[in-house]
Amino acid sequence: MLVTDVPAFRNFWYPVAFAEDLADGPIARTVLGERLVVWATDDGVAAARDVCPHRASALSIGWVENGCVVCPYHGWQFGGDGKAAVIPQLDPTLPIPPKAKLSTVHATERYGVVWISLEEPVGGLPEIEQFEDPTYRTIRQFDEVWAAAAPRLVDNSFDPAHVAYVHKETFGTPENARIDPPEITFTDEGLESRTEMVVENHLDVAQRANQIGEQRTVRTTVSRFVAPFLRVMSITYPNGLHHMLVTGICPVDDEHLRLVQWAIRNDTEADVPAEDVVAFDRAVTLEDQWLLEHTEPDYELGQTDLVHLKVDRGTLAVRKIYRQIVDGTWPALASRAGSAAAPVAVTGSAAADVPVVDISAFDGDDPDARRRVAEAVAEACTEVGFVLVSGHGVADALLDEFYEVSKAFYQLPLETKLRWKSPIDSLYQGYACPGDGPGYHTSERQSFNVGRYDTVAEAIAAGAPGDIGDHMHDALWPDVPESFRSVWRAYFAEMDALTQRLMRVFEAGLGLTNGRLSEFVGNDPSTLVANYYSDDIDAGHEPSPFRFKAHRDGDIFTMLSQDDGPGSLQLHQRHRGWRDVLPVPGTYVVNIGEQLERLTNDRFVATPHRVLTPPEGADRSIPRMSSPFFVKASLDATIAPLPELVGPGEDPHYEPITGRDWLNRNIADIYAGNDSTVRFEQLADRDPSLR
């Protein structure tokens, strides 16, 4: 297990600094591979990704002014909410652009320590009642980075057998290698381990720190594991001394951790100077650090991966908890299933920040609830270009039937399915599969495509322009399974209804009049597709790490249903790279296309995305299915920035183009081999951050 491969780890609190260290200005920290800036505000602490949205400079090398972090490049100031508060170069009579905003993360201060969570937090922050007890004192110890993996230090913390050898210079001895297994109790936050052992106070400073005059003593240790990476170790000695160590572990990346540790004790400075306490614990941690920095970072979760003894009961229990976190069955995570932060374990890149928005309240009578839905969707489309939509109204039974009949078709023999391959090699008509040449997918997928109308005559009768036959083809409907056409048509109608609901939400979020976006659809060439990813058809070309290469959708927007088969849908988040778009039950993935990006003058962003092949070790015999509905502009629609979305002093970013010309260009590109994946490569050449 590598920490950045587990999206669920993003949903926990991690200590990143002592709060007093923010007095001198912002500081840089890295959590799970993400660079952050942390600073003190007027009413607490704040954190965001360490990049200014203006020219991508690091904010952590700036300073703090009036509770705002100031970019050293051009003096832009950002408040604790991430929004730009001051832009020196902007006319003060003009509004601050809405995109002038940092990507903030959760931040709080507790116990004199700053804590960060990259996603909605579900745990990781301990309760320590002694912190408020006047008979106890707190001693700051360490804030440092080790070249070791976070799970390794946790494992070490619940492995009493290592003391005899790793700590033989401080308080252990090989003579005491045989010890009783720890007593383990699982708790809501993790587990509790209890051990009792004979220890040797080899160092004079140990005897002073523990107020024990002789070398040998017995100590009782009760350690709490606060999942996923924190330990509260409570040590009591026969003399009544209670020494607590809070070992906060922040996963910097797969191979590094940040140790933030402090002690809480029921004595005073007059009893034992703090420097003696720190000196003894320093000697102990250096022994652990040396050993762990020589240990592989990839943490073994399987019980058969290593050899175990009875004394390893604690580390086996830790592994059990990690497996639950990875599987998404850890209670704090499982209770959030279907929510915005519902984590699903995958192998590959970390999870993308795609909000889940329940849009059901938009159909209600509460104007505040409607506004909140519209604002949440608009923010996601502005910042990410993707949003996961729940409360969409599509019946589970219909979606299940659609998947069932589609999978039954894909499981037919290839020669049978090819009966419904387009006779003119159109990828927008009927069946297509991996292969070379026109009418075949260069990507690793099978697909079936259908448009709004069954025939050109039907489209013209419904009011479509007379030349629609140049842009659509008569549908090809399989006669097996028998219900294929009726189910697909019923599902198409549901997608049409959801299109209109989302149009209303987009309009409200953008401040447009009701129906403004609907002007661009009607007798449009929107298409419903079912993609089927499997390894049972020879593509005729070399295997690729991608089942669908990087591209941006060329439509208004796309609504995608995906199952949890192996292989990852990924999007590219600027300055963060490729991130997995995890399946969340009961949601549709909605992503903005280039047409809506143009209409909104780049307020909404069309984000590159791709589909990976299953990782090593995945069961590749399991197929993966997804179904996109591509909402396309009508042929007669003029696609240009809407005047009401072109800000004061701003020019339209695009020249007008008709839906007809747009579609002609896209089709020509496909048949010329210059499809959306090629255009993405050209875009990435101009903008290396997309690599």
Question: Secondary structure elements and their pairing?
Answer:
Layout: E1 14-18, E2 27-31, E3 34-41, E4 44-49, E5 63-65, E6 68-70, E7 77-78, E8 84-86, E9 104-110, E10 113-117, E11 137-146, H1 150-157, H2 163-166, E12 183-186, E13 190-200, H3 204-209, E14 216-226, E15 230-236, E16 242-253, E17 256-265, H4 274-292, H5 313-327, H6 331-334, E18 356-358, H7 367-383, E19 386-390, H8 396-410, H9 414-417, E20 430-432, E21 446-451, H10 456-461, H11 484-510, E22 527-533, E23 546-551, E24 557-562, E25 569-573, E26 577-580, E27 588-592, H12 594-599, E28 609-612, E29 624-631, E30 638-639, E31 657-658, H13 659-671, H14 676-686
Parallel strand pairs: 18-19
Antiparallel strand pairs: 1-10, 2-3, 3-4, 4-9, 5-6, 6-7, 7-8, 9-10, 11-17, 12-13, 13-14, 14-15, 15-16, 16-17, 19-27, 20-21, 21-22, 22-29, 23-28, 24-27, 24-29, 25-26, 25-28, 30-31
Folded structure, characterized:
This protein has 691 residues and is an alpha+beta fold. It contains 14 helices and 31 strands. Strands 18-19-27-24-29-22-21-20 form an eight-stranded mixed sheet. It starts with 13 loop residues before the first strand and ends in a 5-residue tail after the last helix. The model is unreliable at 336-349 (pLDDT under 50).
